[in-house]
Structure formats: C-alpha cells, structure tokens
Amino acid sequence: MLDVRALNRATLARQLLLDRSAMPVRDEVGHVVGLQAQNTKPSNHALAARPGGFAPREVSALMAGRDVARILTLRATIHTHTAGGCLVPRPFVQPARDRELGNFRAGLDGVGLGRLAAVARELVEAEPRTMAQLRQALGAEWPDADPRALAAAARCTLPLVQVTPRGLWEESGQVALTTVEHWLGRPARPAPAADSVVLRYLAAFGPASVRDMQTWAGLTRLKDTFERLRPRLLTFRDPYGVEPFALPDAPRPDPETPAPPASCPSSTTSCSPTPTAPGS
C-alpha cells in the first residue's frame, strides 16, 4: 500500500523538487523528459521551482545553441526537450497526431498526405515559416483545399520545432517553424519502443498508473506495455484502488520528508509558484 503522502514525496523526488539537484540544466530537462512550454516562460518557471541555482538565461543559451528546442509533442502542446529528446517523444506520440489529423479531413479532399508532407518540408527547410505563411504557400499548391486544414496537416505529419528567437528569455519573435531534423542537423529516428518510453516516464514521474501515463502522453492503449514490463517493476496500491508502477531502484523517500517551498532566483523577473502535489 502506498498512501497519498508517500506517493507525493516519491513524485517530488523523481521530479527533482525535493532536494537540491547537482544536474546541469540540460540534464534536468532530459531527466523530466520535457517541460511544458505552450507559452514562452513556463519552462523557466518549472526549472526555477526546483531547489538549487538557476538562471533563465541558461535555458536561453541552450536553446540558442540548439541543445534544447520547443516542439509539439505531449498532449498536442509545445514542450521544451533536449535536442536528443526531441527525436524520442515526437514519433512516440505520432498516433495522437494521426487522430488529430482526422479533424481536418473534410478540408483535405483530394490532397495526398505524402505529397503535402514533402511540399511542406521543402517550404520550412528553405526558411522557417509561420503558420500563416504555410497556409498561404500550401493554399497556392492546393487551391481547392482548406488552407487551415493544409497547415494543420503539415503540423501533424512533420516534426516541427519553433525556431529562435521565440522562447529566448526577454526576447520575442513570431512562431516560425522548421523540421526538427533541419534545425538540429540530425536525422529522424523511427518511433521508439514503447517499453523504453514507459521506463523513462516512470524514472521521472513514478510511481504512476497506466492512466497517469496515458494522460501525460495524450495516448491510449498502453496497458499491454505495462503488463509486459510488470516483472521488471514494483507495483503498489493507493488508497483509491489504483495500481501505480515504479522502477525498483527509484527513490521512495520517507513520507514525512519535508518538501521545500518553491523559490525564485533573483535573476527571474517573474515566477509562478510550484504546483502542490496531492497530500503535501
């Protein structure tokens, strides 16, 4: 049995929110798999909430150097990932992008998705494009299709990153897109094995249930993967009858371990409070 407070402290420990982390910022971003970045500042706030020193310009430097990037991945929202991390979650969540594509089918009559992806790739790799520019250019290629559906289909079929200066601290810029392969200078990867992504997720968020991960990723049908991994994992029951899974060697602090309040470094001009996990 794992009570709510024990689950809370275990999650805080895995999220690097319980103790000062000696990890460099880039490694912190990689450890938590990705940081929500639908707006430009939440990634900085999330890192600032972790005990230890942090300056927002550290992430800006990494982003400017293309060591981290902003890309549409989990739950159809923008996340900040390490350069290598961009190439893992994006193909893993492609089934969710395929489902999203179904919302635009009516506006894509007569449009071959393979050719659309090829044309869109050529456009954004020639120079980063805004969604408005994509709509205009793709609409010229398929004048009978819905331009918004064309641009949305490009976003669903291609791994598109937001290029800088968008996302840099105290700088601004329109959302302009190119492919992750072109921006990072790395080839695309095939979709990773679900087992490896589940293990990475549990290292950052466990103990967690199947439903927890499905909600996090915006996916369904992960139960079979958890069952396949069951012999390698620890399992618990929480007070509500849910079965959380955990890595055997992951920390599970004493439930009475104090959780430090969030702090904001002086170099941060604005900072959001750390969300309080259940049972804190």
Question: Mind sketching the topology for me?
Answer:
Elements: H1 4-14, H2 25-31, E1 35-36, H3 42-48, H4 56-64, E2 68-72, E3 78-82, H5 83-86, H6 89-92, H7 94-101, H8 113-126, H9 131-141, H10 147-157, E4 160-162, E5 177-179, H11 180-184, H12 194-205, H13 210-217, H14 223-229, E6 234-235, E7 245-246
Antiparallel strand pairs: 1-3, 2-3, 2-4, 4-5, 6-7
Helix pairs in contact: 7-10, 8-10, 9-10
Describe the structure.
With 280 residues, this protein is an alpha+beta fold. The protein has 2 domains: 4-85 and 189-246, no CATH class; 90-182. It has 14 helices and 7 strands. It has helices spanning 4-14, 25-31, 42-48, 56-64, 83-86, 89-92, 94-101, 113-126, 131-141, 147-157, 180-184, 194-205, 210-217, 223-229, and strands at residues 35-36, 68-72, 78-82, 160-162, 177-179, 234-235, 245-246. Strands 1-3-2-4-5 form a 5-stranded antiparallel β-sheet. A two-stranded antiparallel sheet has the order 6-7. Helix 9 packs across helix 10. The two termini are 18 Å apart. Mean pLDDT is 87; it is low at 264-280.
